[in-house]
Amino acid sequence: MSAQAALGRSIVRVVILASCWLPVEHILCAGTVVGDWITCSVATDTCSGSGFVCCIGPGDAGTGKTTCRWGGSGTDCVVTKAPTTTPVHYGGHYNLGNTGSTMTIMTKRPYAVYEPYMSAFLATYPDNTVVSFVQQSTDAEIQSDTASYTSVQRGPDVLQWYSGGSGSNKLIANGNFRNLDAMFKKYNLYEQLAPSMLKGGQDANGHPYIVPTDAYHWAMYYRPSVWRRYNVRPPKTWADWMAACDTFLAAGITPIYLGNYEGWPAISNFDYFDMRIRGPVAHMALLDGQQPWTSPDVYDVFMEWRRILDKYTRYQDIVNGWSTPDPVFLGTAAMAFCGDFVRWGAPAGFNMSDFDFFQFPIFDPGLAVGENAPGDGLVISATSQNPALAEAWLAYLVSTNVSIARVKAGDIRIPSNVNAFSSISDPLTLKGANMLRNADYITGVGDREVLADFKAVYTPELVKFLTYNYTGDAIRAMLQRLETARVQVYLHQAAPPDITASSSTTTTTPTDLISTKPVWVNLTTVTGGTKIYFTLDGSEPSDAAELYQGPILIAQSGRITLKAVTVGDALMIRSSKVSQQTFVLNLDPPPTFLGISVGVAGFSIALAIIGIVYALVLMALVQRYSREPILKAAAPRFLQIMLVGAIIALTCGVWMALDVSVGVPYSLSSTSCMVNIWAISIGWALMFGALFAKTYRVSSLFQAFEANNLTVKAVSDETLFRIVGLMTSLELLILVAWTVINPLTLASVDLGNAVSRHQCVSSGGSSVWAFATVSIVAKFAVLIAGIALCIQTRNVHDAFNGASDLVILPPADQARLTTAVDMTESKKIAFSIYNIATFGTGAFVISFLINEQDVALAVRAVGLFLSVVITITGVVLTKIYIIFYDKEMNNDKAWDLLSVSKRKAKGATTTSALPLTSGINRVTPATPVVPSALASGSTTAGLR
């Protein structure tokens, strides 16, 4: 019975699935039954799940339901009961409700290519045998889809794949592909298929997992007429090749042309250099992640490639050029490295009989010969639901008769079946087939051989090697980047730490780093989310060793071996290999590092805490007794501002003690440099601002006091708040500019004679005194202004005492006037300014002249403590003392100057005094007046 008759008696269903496959369970949604099929519209029929669209599914006919699938074009989907060649979108493993066999094929070639062979194949199988085709369009789809769909339970049976490479090895090792050893024996494929094409898809036992179908070759293409003109023969050895290049170079012809469209022709060029110089076995091991890229022999390959590129090769069109060698067709280049696709790009009318190729020259005759022949293959999923049918189809497709038919039809160029070579009519294709047949190994282009994550690094690096003319150290750096990627992608291991040392007197040997001065060492790794641990005694590091947190100082004479390891999450990435560097330090005299001891650091922190607690207690007392007359008169809000400033300033005692020499992390110690400046500046602005504002009020109240003239002004709290705000804003402006433009950071400073210390320095490279000078000058200017106000008001008390000669007051009233004026705090404020300048500023200036860090910190801590504590004691605690121990002073009457007197002049009358809040009160000799009572509020507080 003929195949056609058999086909007529069977109901064979071939469904073309021209879309991506998603192995999901059926999700049903409402559809519309139309005759013998079902349609659904994405506009009206909905599916559950994000990204799913409504579509007919096999087995849904007559159910009033349809199947949802992921993705789609947004158009209606239709499938009929009869065979059709109309593309049908459908996702998910299916069954049409028949009792026969089913098989799904995923391939990048259209169904029309397979249709003649599939029809003949299905003619021998039972009724209702169904074959579905899913077409892929890109290599990326093949790489991602095949890996995904062979890992699910109900995916396609037959899938497109390449002839070998790292991706194949990984999927074979993971059990994604079906072992085809029994199939090869059953259908005698070992005898029919080229052994060299099988090697890329076999496991360690030689069992095949990939059925190669066809391939094309790469070689050196040339025009024989051009070579004859210069009496040059196609070379077979490396030496002959170089001689031919020299001949063409002397004749003014570019010896070698290398197109590099999208980077992959250059990758294939490297494949050949590596296979010829190191051998195909080493090359495949390199691409499979089994060998390090930093091996010296790999570097030698790149250096030889660079030599030939620089001397003989044109590749200026590296970015925009095609892989088609137009200069070879035109005769301006002697040869080009290309795949056999080069013939497709021949100019119109070109005589193809004047076009040939020769095998890439042999570097070492003792090595096996490898050839690049990107080949297509097919695999069977390990979870195939019908492996017997899938095996039968693959054996049929690569059989001698079908291979011959496909060659004649032009579907393939070089078949994997060696028995079909005789059917190749094209001379160059046959020549390429025999070259591959005689090769020891067949590999694909490198970007197909490596894993996708490594390809993302590999391809750009090789393109940059060509574009930027890498050589020497640049090649070594590139190989290190590739090695880092290899370790992470193939070994799932963190990259080892890079060890870099800084010293002006460092020399290196193959094993040691030698220095006559202390060395700072930095450890870095390119692997994110990891930590570095290290040892300095030569022992093996682990996560139990010291954690790297900042630069390491090696400041001890002798031989010191540093070892470091990158440690990652054991579930995702393993710890790296150990990096090590030996340092030989010859220090004379022995280096001395001036650090801060734990005891002195604790002393500084303790003083700061005591001062802060003291200030907090005073703040609580001022708040608690703020309605007491003496505190009301002293403007309690400004006392609180001054105490807040004191607390901020006192925190410097903590920040100054945060040094790496006492175990503080380097990053925190470095940050404290700028925080310390902020704390002392803002604290000073608030403390001194409050004092300055109070002095300004006294000065304004008593601008002049003459024998017959008392000038009085009232100054509101709001005015004083503006003064404090202005001083604080000035400090903030300086601090923000300093922090943004040139912040301080911690660094080790060499003091000479092998002595160093940590010091806050400018991170921008300019002097640390630039902004420091601006800050100091601003503070000094305000200090001068404050001192001037203190001088102006220093005799307010004496002036009022002198008033007794002019004003007749009863003794009790005179005592009250003296008391009120006594409470002007100009002298206390003047003393506070003197105290800050002496203990505070003086201590900080002196400490910078002291190299011994313990002594310097102690001086700064004591100076800070005394300047702040003495100031708040003199201004605040004295008033608290009066509240508890001097009731007469803490009395409203003590602040009532409502005393009327008469001048000594006879006949003088008494006039009731005007309140101070009335502005300026002038009293004529005939009507002597003394200041009126200062009630509560801003006027009374004004005397403070």
From TrEMBL:
CDD domains: 7tmC_GABA-B-like
Membrane topology, from the record: Multi-pass membrane protein
GO cellular component, one term: G protein-coupled receptor heterodimeric complex
Xref: SUPFAM superfamilies: Periplasmic binding protein-like II (SSF53850)
Biological process terms in GO annotation: gamma-aminobutyric acid signaling pathway
G-protein coupled receptors family 3 profile domain residues: 600-890
Tagged with keyword tRNA-binding: no
GO MF: G protein-coupled GABA receptor activity
Sorted UniProt keywords: G-protein coupled receptor, Glycoprotein, Membrane, Receptor, Signal, Transducer, Transmembrane, Transmembrane helix
Principal location class: membrane
Transmembrane portions of the chain: 593-617, 638-658, 678-698, 719-741, 768-791, 829-850, 862-884
UniProt keyword Iron-sulfur present: no
PANTHER family: G-PROTEIN COUPLED RECEPTOR 156-RELATED (PTHR10519:SF20), GABA-B RECEPTOR (PTHR10519)
Designated name of the protein: G-protein coupled receptors family 3 profile domain-containing protein
